[in-house]
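Ex. 9. Protein: Addiction module component.
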Amino acid sequence: MQTESIKQKAYHILDNLPEKATWDDLMYKIYVRQAIEAGIKDSNKGRTVDVKEVRKRFGLTK
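Predicted structure tokens for Addiction module component:
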């Protein structure tokens, strides 16, 4: 399985934006893509925290 290059990913994002998209729309899409990829990478490396621990740290119940 060949992975996409950054340029290919960027072109894919651009191709899927509506014609009237703004710079903010583009920046948001790039930010979301980067955040998702970073989260997947962290998860694959076992850098996660159980939801129960997160709730405990923030004083949340249930």
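Check your answer against this statement. The chain has one domain: 6-57.
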